[in-house]
Amino acid sequence: MILLLAGLPALAAPGVTANAEEALKRSRASEGRVLAEHHLRDQDDRPVALSSFRGKPLVVSMVYTACDHTCPVTTQTVAKAVDKARKALGDDSFQVVTIGFDTVRDTPNALRMYARQQGIDVSDWTFLAGGAEAMEVLAADLGFTWFVTSRGFDHIAQTTVIDKDGRIYRQVYGENFEIPQLVEPLKDLVLGRTAALDSFEAISNRIRFFCTVYDPSADAYRFDYGIFLSIGSGLLAVLTILWWMIRLWRQRRSEA
Fold first, then answer.
1. What is the CATH T-level fold of the domain 20-222, as seen in this structure?
2. H or E segment at 239?
3. Where are the domains of the chain?
4. Numbered residues of the known binding site for Cu cation
5. Is 39 strand, coil or helix?
């Protein structure tokens, strides 16, 4: 996990302190929070309201485009996890946003160039920029902390999973996190771990939820038919026992 180093000078985002434990605490405290309205601009310099992404789960990654170490690695890790998630859950099952928090350099054009450098297709992945005041408020809402340093910025390496109603569901930490750390919360939201089984689609999604599993050897998600074999074997065992009990009962009746 990449966290802020204690003892950094007080060149932080306004209202925060240079302490790794506090940064992590602030991040975790954001889980369950419904995001307020935030107005930004996309890579084509068009105005975008963050609320426009509601209706589907949303993945949010915070970067600064001049970064030559943590941010590109994080972006590639997120891209890999997003690819696995889309193959398992569906291309249109969730949305992805990268936000540039360096309000001086992270212009819409800089973000478009960053996306190109990282090999990201902006047709299904949005890059957003904002002014200093807007970014300060958004970062606080997301529980994201950063500090100005001689190298650029130190910041918490945080990828945020937001549900379809704009509520922060999970924070994922680190630049090289394991694929399931991002895909599993998305699976919860897309397939509905706790959704009511009141329709065929809901029942189908619940089956997909339990049968879509991560295979470390293939580094991919797959549909595991083993659960049906287990259910079938269990049902066969129950029927066999029931048949044996009925047969025994009939035999005893005939002897009586």
1. Glutaredoxin (3.40.30)
2. helix 226-255
3. 20-222, 225-255
4. 67, 71, 155
5. strand
